[in-house]
Amino acid sequence: MSEHEKIDYVEFPAKDLEVAKSFFSSVFGWTFEDYGPDYAAFSNEGVDGGFYKSDLTASTANGGALIIFYS
Amino acid sequence: MSEHEKIDYVEFPAKDLEVAKSFFSSVFGWTFEDYGPDYAAFSNEGVDGGFYKSDLTASTANGGALIIFYS
What we know:
Two copies of one chain form a homodimer.
Chain A: E1 6-14, H1 17-28, E2 33-34, E3 39-45, E4 47-53, E5 66-70
Parallel strand pairs in A: 1-4
Antiparallel strand pairs in A: 2-3, 3-4
């Protein structure tokens, strides 16, 4: 449920979507909904979001936001 | 309130904390709690998080996570 004036969604780059999904499924218990071969969405895991296939890597060394997962 | 296995917190770099706070206060109505001159935290704005003073800039061109704000 989107709320006005809040952070609503986070997208992460992933070099290999299957590896990313496998990691977050096994470690965090997340489930994913695929949108074709290049996108996998998750819902209600703190925020909604998704992984998109990309050769880029999220890194705070490049100024990327630091995302903290609670386990 | 932290929940297990969820995204819990997001940290953004900000070149000028006062400018960042002013923008998110006026546009999104957020409030901040300062932790000294180099950190400003926010709570419950979709997720908890904060801005830290840095010359870096969050950019998806560098692989940074794309954070979507709902307004």
